[in-house]
Amino acid sequence: MNVDLKEKGDNITEETMSLISSLPSHADAQGKKLCKYQGTWYYFNILQGVVNFQRNFQPQDTDIILASFPKSGTTWLKALTVALFERSKHRSSSDDHHPLLSNNPHGIVPFFEIDMYLESSTPDLTKFSSSSSSPRVFSTHMPLHTMKEALKDSPCKIVYVCRNVKDTLVSLWCFACAHEKTELSRSRLESMFKSFCNGTIFYGPFWEHVLSYWRASMENPSHVLFMRYEEMRSEPRGQVKRLAEFLGCAFTKEEEESGMVDKILDLCSLRNLSGLEVNKSGRINTVDHKIFFRKGEVGDSKNYLTPDMENEIDMIIQEKLQGSGLKY
Ligand code: PAP
Hints:
Layout: H1 14-21, E1 25-27, E2 33-37, E3 40-43, H2 44-56, E4 64-68, H3 74-86, H4 99-102, H5 105-108, H6 112-119, E5 137-140, H7 144-151, E6 157-162, H8 165-179, H9 186-197, H10 206-219, E7 224-228, H11 229-234, H12 236-246, H13 253-257, H14 260-267, H15 270-275, H16 277-281, E8 283-284, E9 287-288, H17 307-321
Parallel strand pairs: 4-5, 4-6, 6-7
Antiparallel strand pairs: 1-2, 2-3, 8-9
Helix pairs in contact: 2-6, 2-7, 8-9
3'-phosphate-adenosine-5'-diphosphate (PAP) binds near residues 68, 174, 269 and 270.
């Protein structure tokens, strides 16, 4: 076993270390090591979370899994899903007991591999109740093929949110710099751009990720819902209604007439969530809640990527998605 693979503070078992030593690996521009497992690049500690999840997760038929490539709208999707299921319990969005007012969406809907299964192979799932009004809701950045065996043909519902690749890349860069409390540096953007394009970025290749969910949504639309961040921005009412229908909690006519759709959208808006005390000052793991909220603008990448960078990404995506029916 190669002990050098082990990074300080990581909870990696001997067995996983031995697995890692058999996998392709590389270091990112910061020197942090990643390995390629089942077609996807993971930091070593996160791979432990993936393996723990694969071995131990027991799905329930009513489970809901919110999936995404990082920086594609996960926080928003989590908030909307929580708000949809909580709406019967909280008539008013200013209700002090609403979970979104006292917790960040990531604290309410944990990631399998980054939160729940990172430190423990058998996390306590008892706090996740499943009742007819609120099923268990989890999230992940893993591609669908990595979850397939663990889900054991469960009819659980999976919602995938996808975002324009260039905006995703810029959002990732801004997040990384904010997390490390460094200035936005061009060299950092360029190195992330390279690993994004050659597929070696954390959770990459992007195209494999998005295609795993896209194909499943085409084959089985009642199992996988494919959403787009840009459509959520441009027609939020239609998209939140679509989400509610898929989740089995469609808005009633009375709810629509009473303005419930807009109430949920207001509660979950970037402006509202980022202004809440819990999101201005709290943190989850080592991440300040506030850095999950930035601009939320469609097309913001234009302000940072050069035309050459944009062309290169466009060409790669066009080539990789060819024939899939998925368009950007
Ligand atoms: P994650 O992968 O770390 O969970 P994720 O929430 O997927 O991050 O993506 C963050 C992006 O969503 C940020 O985009 P930006 O960097 O281009 O601004 C963030 O601003 C945006 N975002 C967060 N919350 C919301 C929200 N409530 N509505 C719209 N966009 C949001």
